[in-house]
Structures are given as structure tokens and as C-alpha cells.
Amino acid sequence: MRLSTVSNETVSNYKVFVDSMGITALINPEGLDRDEFDEFGDHLIVRDTNTLEVVGTYRILGPHGARRIGSFYSEQEFNLGRLRNLRSSMAEAGRACVHPDYRSGAVIALLWSGLAAYMKKEQCKYLAGCASVSLADGGHNLAALYHSIGPANRAPAEYRVTPHLPFPLDTRDTGCKPQVPPLIRGYLKGGAWVCGEPAWDPDFHCADLFMLLPMDKLDDKFARHYFRQPAAA
């Protein structure tokens, strides 16, 4: 099996979000997952070149697209007021989705590589996005994960955001060893910050962490892998 990345195509995550995850809020007669942000973003996809089936997707909303629609998607869940000075150089990645049969890591690696190429091409200095954590266990894993985040991955006060609908972490058990979703693991390995407490997303049965990765803070090993930069002499 070979995989390839293709950008600027709108694709549907409907089968994963609705058929597999049971997110009933997204059900529609067309069988498509789409919203008002799609036409303003760029769409990165991964195909299995043996079958041409779409097996991974990412939507990128760059500063120009966000300016045209008037906001970033994340602003539906968070107050980004403290980040207003970053808007002209910030790209938002969202709607990450990988087919259940292709979750070995190769697809998410290709998506990250495509995302890295986009950031470089558009000369964006900040990568932002909502990263989801399932609430299937009632939120205990989320609480353990949030409290396990070390100082290096916690945003300075001037980059903090506020959730519109906070998830009540204080009523959850934080003693378990957290299971870290692959997307969040990638962000943290890259050097991203968690910019505040999680927002509750009842429609998706999850909570979201707002992640912010300043490109000048990017981990060297992560950069060499995804940007294909040569090691420093």
C-alpha cells in the first residue's frame, strides 16, 4: 500500500464521525460532513493509492480565509481575545479524521507533513487548533491528561484562552494514567502549548483543548522529520 497527500480538495468525514462515532448532531440527508468554514479553508487529504479511497483528512483555515469568514472555527468554543495580535500569521488546523483501518501512524504522519509544507509555503508563524479528547469514560481520562501536562507545554499567561463552556474537571478522578490521543501527542512532541482549560463539546461527545504551536518553538527533531530540514552542523 502506498499513500499520497493531496491538498485543496473538500472531502467528507461523515462515515467516521456519524457512522463510526455516532455523532447524531451531524446527521444530514446528503451524508456529508461540512460546515460554513469549508469553503474558506484548504483541504488536505491522504488517499490509499491502490484503491483511491480517502483515508485521512485535515482542514486548514489560514489567516486570509479566517479574515474572509470573520473568525476561526475555534472561536465557537473559546474566547481568543488574547491572541488577536497573532491572527495575521496564524493558521488553524481542524476536522482531523483518519479511517479506522489506517490508524497505524502512517496517515497522521503524512497529514503532519502536508501541514508542515502548508505552514512553510504560507509563511505562517503559529499553528492553532482544537484537539479532542473522548468523554466516553465520563471525563476521567481528560482530567488526568490535563493535569499531567508539564510546564513546557502550558502556555504563558499572555497566550491563554477561555472556554465558552468549560468542562468540570474538578469533579473527575485525576489519578489514572492518561491515554493521550495521537493528535495531541503529536502537538506536544512538536512543542505546542495547551492554552487553557478544555471546552465541552456536547455535539461531538468530547472536550477540546486549544493547542498553539509557535513555529519558532518547534522541537528540532520534530522539525527535521516533518519539514525535512537537515540537522544543524
Describe the structure.
The protein has 233 residues and is an alpha+beta fold. The protein has one domain (3-227): Aminopeptidase. It is built from 6 helices and 10 strands, in the order βαββαββαβαβαβββα. It has helices spanning 14-20, 63-69, 106-122, 140-148, 182-190, 220-227, and strands at residues 3-6, 42-48, 53-61, 78-79, 90-98, 126-134, 162-163, 193-194, 199-201, 206-214. The strands form 2 sheets. Strands 1, 2, 3, 5, 6, 8, 9 and 10 form an 8-stranded mixed β-sheet that branches. A two-stranded antiparallel ribbon has the order 4-7. A hairpin with a 4-residue loop joins strand 9 (199-201) and strand 10 (206-214). It is globular and about 45 Å long.
The structure class reads: alpha+beta
Overall mean pLDDT score?
A: 84
Beta content comes to: 15-25%
What does the largest sheet look like? 8 strands, mixed
CATH topology heading: Aminopeptidase
